Amino acid sequence: MIKVERSEAPAKLTAEKVKELTEEYKKTEKNVWNQDYIKKALLDMSNNKCIFCECRLGEESKYIEVEHFHPKSKYPEEVVEWENLLPICKRCNGLKRDHDTKLEPIINPTLIDPRKHLTIKKFRFFSKDDLGKKTISVLCLNDSDRLFLPRVKIGDAISSILDSLGKWVDKIKFDHSVEDQNELISKMYNLLKSCQPNAEYSTICSYALFEDDNYYEIKNFMQQVKIWDEDLSRLETNCLNYSLIEYGHLKSTV
Ligand SMILES: [Zn+2]
Known about the structure:
Layout: H1 15-28, H2 36-45, E1 65-68, E2 85-88, H3 90-96, E3 118-121, E4 124-127, H4 130-139, H5 144-175, H6 178-193, H7 202-210, H8 213-224, H9 230-242, H10 247-251
Antiparallel strand pairs: 1-2, 3-4
Bound molecules: zinc ion (ZN).
C-alpha cells in the first residue's frame, strides 16, 4: 500500500450528475457508480492497481470494482462522491464489505500516507498504531495464499536478480570492460524501474530491494568506479519516498 494522489474528478461527473445519480441510487439501489468514465479515472489515478493490495487490475479476472470508502449502505449521499470512490480488487472489496470507516477508520491511501501507520518486516505488514492495526485486520493484509506467498516470490525474484548483478560486478573487477559496465548500469536501471510506485506490489518490490545486502554492495562498487549516475539516484530516491522501510534504517547506507 502506497500513498496515491487523488486526481481530478472525471469531467462527466459534474455536480448535477452526482445529484442525479445519488437520487437514482436512493430510489432504486441501482449500481449508479458503475460507469466506464468513473472506472477509467480511478484506474488512471492508481496506475491500474488495487488501492489497498496493489495487485494489477484488468488482468486475469482481477477486474476493477468501484470501492465506496465510506460504505454506500450507510452513507448513500456519498455513493458517487468522487472523493469517496477508490479502485479496488474483488478480494479486497469482499473483505472490506460494509465496514464502517467513519466509526472504525482504516487508511484511505488518497488521504493518509500509509508509511505513518504501517511498516513491513519479513514480507509481513506490521502496524505502528491503531489505525494501521485496524487496516491490516479489516483487509487481511497478511493473508497467506493471496498476499504473503506472492510477496515471497517477488522477494526471491529480486534477490536472484541482485545475485546475478553481483556476479557481473566480479566480472568487471576482473576485466574492467566498458561494455560490461554499461550492461551493469542498464540492469540496475531496469531493476530500480521495476520497483517504482507504478509497479504491481511496489511496496514489496522496494522492501525486497532495500533489505538485500547485495544491493548496497553493488551500489558501493558502482559509486567507486563512478558509474552510479543521476538517473539511478533519482529512481532510488523515488522508491524510498514510497517505501515502508524506515528511512533511518537506510541513512547510513544510501
Ligand atoms: Zn486488492
